[in-house]
Amino acid sequence: MSNPDDNDSRNSHNNVSDEHLPSEQERGAVAPADDPFADPGLPPHEHRRQDIDERAAKRSERTVALLFTVSMLSTIGFIASYVAIPIDKIVYIWPFGHISGLNFALGLTLGVALFCIGAGAVHWARTLMSDEEMSDERHPIEATPEVKAQVLADFAQGTKESQFGRRKLVRTTLFGALALVPLSGVVLLRDLGPLPGTKLRHTMWKPGSLIINENTMQPLRPEDITLGSLTQAMPEGLDPHDHNFQVEIAKAAVMLVRLEPDDIKDPKSAEWGHEGILCFSKICTHIGCPATLYEQQTHHALCPCHQSTFDLADGARVLFGPAGHPLPQLRIKVNDDGYLEALGDFEEPPGPSFWERG
Ligand code: FES
């Protein structure tokens, strides 16, 4: 006599061919798996092409060798770039914009050299190194029934003793406290903003700003700047008692020197000055110390922090040290009253060279 359950089961699969049904279903019941974490074992080993075809192995060998060779060439390119590209060479590279040509070349060549070593090693391991498969027995990770029962009993006992289940008010307020406390961290995220926008690119200098001597707080005249001296200055309208004085002076501080016009090597720099008086940002383009140690014979300005040296006679070009850019120069003129004034803001952001990415 047939079982009614068996009939129901077969009827429900009328549209499925028998070969797609597991054998247990054909008998009308699915047997529970004994061990849901049973080790399925290793699939049959498949040989790689390179294991059975010597020509494929040779191709892989050549590919690996090519990657290592490209790495060597890139390293040579790195050294050549370091020697050949001037430290203050600025190039336009899409999409980065105007950046240091030397930094770009060094980063690119070193990146390619390291990538090719890594890619060559991975290709070597995947195609040529031994492909032997090994299995390592693992002990069962499931706890024994006794341990599970003990854990559940301990949990029930702890719940009872803490009165967690009985004291509903305590339980509810605890959940509330735990849910709210992470919000304090979220609120602190507000301090990450607002973003600086273009603030770091601009200073207080604008057309017509008088140049104020930082020591006397008086506007400077050309005759105040003598040969061989270095005068530290700031824009008019900046009061040391203002709450934002430190923020503004950190971007706008300048130094003025007077050179013999014939000593100025950079014609553009000479044109931006006034009869040999040149005005440069004094904020070192390394990490922002004042670069105001002046050697009047050589016209070099030295930063005391890490010894970056700038040639003020040659557009404040970097001669030595970790600074990545010349000191920006401020265009100046003499106004009708005989005072030195700015013709506008710096053309590039003063200070550490990473602002160029801002
Ligand atoms: S801050 Fe000037 S050299 Fe480092």
UniProtKB/TrEMBL annotation:
A single Pfam family, by name?
Answer: Rieske
User: What's a single GO MF annotation on this record?
Assistant: 2 iron, 2 sulfur cluster binding
According to the record, the segments passing through the membrane are: 64-85, 105-125, 169-189
What membrane topology was assigned to this protein in its record?
Answer: Multi-pass membrane protein
Which domain of life does this protein belong to?
Answer: Bacteria
A GO CC annotation given for this chain? plasma membrane
Region spans: Disordered: 1-48
Gene3D superfamilies in the record, alphabetically?
Rieske [2Fe-2S] iron-sulphur domain
Q: Where is the composition biased (Basic and acidic residues)?
A: 7-27
**Self-association or partners: how does it assemble?**
The cytochrome bc1 complex is composed of a cytochrome b (QcrB), the Rieske iron-sulfur protein (QcrA) and a diheme cytochrome c (QcrC) subunit.
Protein family (similarity comment)? Belongs to the Rieske iron-sulfur protein family.
**Free-text function comment from the UniProt entry:** Iron-sulfur subunit of the cytochrome bc1 complex, an essential component of the respiratory electron transport chain required for ATP synthesis. The bc1 complex catalyzes the oxidation of menaquinol and the reduction of cytochrome c in the respiratory chain. The bc1 complex operates through a Q-cycle mechanism that couples electron transfer to generation of the proton gradient that drives ATP synthesis.
Output this protein's name.
Answer: Cytochrome bc1 complex Rieske iron-sulfur subunit
What is the protein's species of origin? Streptomyces xiamenensis
